[in-house]
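Recall the central idea of this unit: under ordinary conditions, the amino acid sequence of a chain determines the structure it adopts. In this exercise we apply that idea directly, starting from the sequence alone.
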Amino acid sequence: MTMNTRAASGPSSQSRSLLRRADGSAIRVLVVDDEATLTDLLAMALHYEDWEVKTASTGQQALQLSREFKPDVVVLDIMLPDIDGMQVLSRMRADGNEAPVLFLTAKDSLDDRIAGLTAGGDDYVTKPFSLEELVARLRGLLRRSRAAVADHEDPVLIVGDLVLDEDSYEVHRDGQLIQLTATEFELLRFLMRNPRRVLSKAQILDRVWSYDFGGSSSVVELYISYLRKKIDAGRAPMIHTVRGAGYMVKAAQ
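Accordingly, the structure predicted from this sequence is:
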């Protein structure tokens, strides 16, 4: 599986709040997947958050690390070579580990989602996925479990009258709720993390469609048009095209 490792680079420290344990030590994350390339990429992204990461490629390794490492949150693939993720989670809970678990799988059916959450999982992400979305979901799980505290204010991005909440996945403009798809949300978040900065199509493809994406830059134009219809419709425009350079978001004049 080919993946773009540059996608593991995150936003500047000025635009994100670092999460730590209540005692000030690093958040501990256990990543369980039998694809080494994927676990390496995830580890890079999570290390950028200043979190301590351990990886496992089998269910048995995961259980051993769960007991020794005592993670604060777990990324757990359902399809493993020995025992499946559902059994791993069941045994973790039997051991007394109540860390929130985000299931990671290539399966995308409603039955799989229900099964994962019924088994005691806390969230569910399907492959292919955006690294930023996965990290944001982990941050949300950590906050809800109260396993972590932020080093400064909650991650709410504000540009003019446009507000994006990274934890609740809600977007408002002038107080009005705007419904976005997951991809539209990721695109808008990337733009809002870089206000008044021109972002090229290549940069946007790299960040928003970061996992093994083989498409063309035309998909960026398409999703920018979707965002404009939802964000700028009937209002002063905030999403701007810089001809020959890319796109940017800035407060309406």
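The longest strand covers residues 28-32.
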